[in-house]
Amino acid sequence: MDLNNNRLFQTKNYIDGQWCESAGKLAVTDPATGALLAEIADGGAEDAERAVAAAHAAFPAWSGKTAAERAAVLKRWYRLIADNREDLARLLTLEQGKPLAEALGEIDYGASYIEWYAEECRRAYGQTIPTHNPAMRLHTIRQPVGVVTCITPWNFPNAMITRKAAPALAAGCTVVIKPAAETPLSALALCALAEEAGLPAGTLNVVAGSDSAAIGRVLTQDARVAKFTFTGSTQVGKLLMAQCAGTVKKMSMELGGNAPFIVFDDADIDVAVTACMATKMRNAGQTCVSTNRIYVHESVHDEFVDKLRAQMQALRPGHGLEQGTTLGPLIFRRAVDRVHGMVEEAVANGARLLLGGDFLPNGENYYAPTLLTEVRDDMRIAREEIFGPLAVVLKFREEGDVIRRANDTPFGLAAYVMSENIRRANRVVEALEYGMVACNAGVFSTTVAPFGGIKESGIGREGGVEGMAEFYETKYCCYGI
Ligand code: NAP
């Protein structure tokens, strides 16, 4: 691997401060070419158990440090990530496929959680409560929950880890992470830098492996684990929630979405198209907040579609490391076939194909930017999360009707509203049943704001003060005097 800092290329799991080999090997490949990038230690349930034991043993010392002491280690980690951002981005593009500029953006975004929570942990104040009884004094203190286990997906192999690990570590928790089998190299590179930053052995552990169900059972069922946090599909999230029930763990779930993107007749169409491109085509459409259903008012439909098609046509598919690439591959062939199947089904049911609709010659995991109009709400393409470079346009006439249609889904992660009318914008933002709503913007996720969904899109928040609260227990202390 061609990196400036070869220490970032790690092929063993990181448990209790040691790089640990396994009998089996897990192949990591470049989704753009299929080339083998690495064969890493294929961790399993036993490794996960050792990691949980290590995190449990490390907890008293780490949680016993002052917030300032923990912050100092985290800030060193943050600076090392910033110093190695080019290498980390390169590694990320190679194993995940996104264009290098997007990978650099993810590294900076991921690192920002570490910096911000290093600062925030110094403000974990409790309260003094006005007493109900003159002979008693009432306080609350905030204490770290304990051992935290995390399972993360392949679409953001760096940031989905830091978004969980940074607030957990800052709060005084110790952490075990299982990254997706497709993208373990970014996770292991983060461990190498955490080690260099001086994070004590056992505080942060990574167990990658092909048997995610076996590792997952340990992370969700071990009684020493106080909290489990997951980012991934709703289907797997439900299974893991059930597994956590046996030991009544605290849980955070960042799950799938089905984001509506509503373009009103009073929208600035150029702003709307730019926002739509950003939410729809970033990471080849493989983000949980990717627009799924684009509702356009009938009076501006043709103008919006023409402009969107022009921008989609201008995308440059290619290897993420090639200069000028703006569209990478999907993560694996299964994903490409799924998207293609949805397109074929929609066209067979009356949707109109305006662009794409086919595989690309760049490699077996590439799919053409695809634009469909005349889509109906009952089509699978409008009901399921797409996760590909496929834009799906539906028409509407009335505000009330589009709100009802936008909310008619079990998902509730992100929604988008395009309108220059402040009254309407406020009305619609409030009426949408989603955890996050962006108005006249396509990219909204930031360290300082709470990210998360409602309904079947999740439980809990990541980012901001809410993201930190997930890793504390509030203890009520009552003193008789
Ligand atoms: P996924 O299949 O649910 O996988 C996510 C993680 O769960 C991976 O680490 C996977 O490991 C692991 N996993 C799968 N089956 C498991 C099991 N039975 N037990 C334990 N772990 C298991 O999701 P994905 O397709 O990789 O990721 C895309 C999904 O994530 C989308 O639905 C997207 O919307 C969602 N997402 C949500 C957010 C958010 O913040 N709400 C952010 C990003 C992504 P292996 O890959 O090793 O099997």
Helix content class: 25-40%
Q: What count of structural domains? A: 2
User: What is the count of helical runs?
Assistant: 15
Low-pLDDT segments, ≥5 res: none
Question: Are any ligands bound, and if so which?
Answer: NADP nicotinamide-adenine-dinucleotide phosphate
Q: Please give the order of strands in the largest beta sheet.
A: 14-15-16-13-12-18-19
The main sheet comes to: 7 strands, mixed
CATH superfamily caption of the largest domain: Aldehyde Dehydrogenase, Chain A, domain 1
Work out the number of β strands: 22
Tertiary shape: globular
- What would you say the CATH architecture of the largest domain is? 3-Layer(aba) Sandwich
Q: Could you say which structural class the secondary elements and strand pairing correspond to?
A: alpha/beta
Global Rg: 23 Å
Sheet-strand content, in percent, reads 15-25%
The CATH class label of the largest domain is Alpha Beta
Question: Which whole number gives the mean pLDDT?
Answer: 98
Task: Output the CATH topology of the largest domain.
Answer: Aldehyde Dehydrogenase, Chain A, domain 1
Structure characterization notes:
The protein is an alpha/beta fold and 481 residues long. It has 2 domains: 6-255 and 457-480, Aldehyde Dehydrogenase, Chain A, domain 1 (3-Layer(aba) Sandwich), CATH 3.40.605.10; 259-446, Aldehyde Dehydrogenase, Chain A, domain 2, CATH 3.40.309. Helix content is 40%, strand content 22%. The protein contains 15 helices and 22 strands. It has helices spanning 45-64, 67-83, 85-96, 100-120, 159-171, 184-197, 212-221, 234-245, 269-281, 301-313, 333-348, 380-383, 399-407, 422-431, 464-469; strands spanning 13-15, 18-20, 25-29, 36-41, 127-129, 136-144, 147-151, 174-178, 204-206, 225-231, 250-254, 259-263, 291-297, 352-355, 370-373, 390-396, 411-412, 414-418, 436-439, 454-455, 458-459, 472-480. Strands 14-15-16-13-12-18-19 form a 7-stranded mixed sheet, with helices on both faces. β12, α9 and β13 form a beta-alpha-beta unit. The chain binds NADP nicotinamide-adenine-dinucleotide phosphate. The site of NADP nicotinamide-adenine-dinucleotide phosphate has 29 residues, from α7 and α8. NADP nicotinamide-adenine-dinucleotide phosphate (NAP) is lined by residues 151-156, 160, 178, 180-182, 212-213, 216, 231-233, 236, 239-240, 254-257, 288, 385, 413, 453, 458.
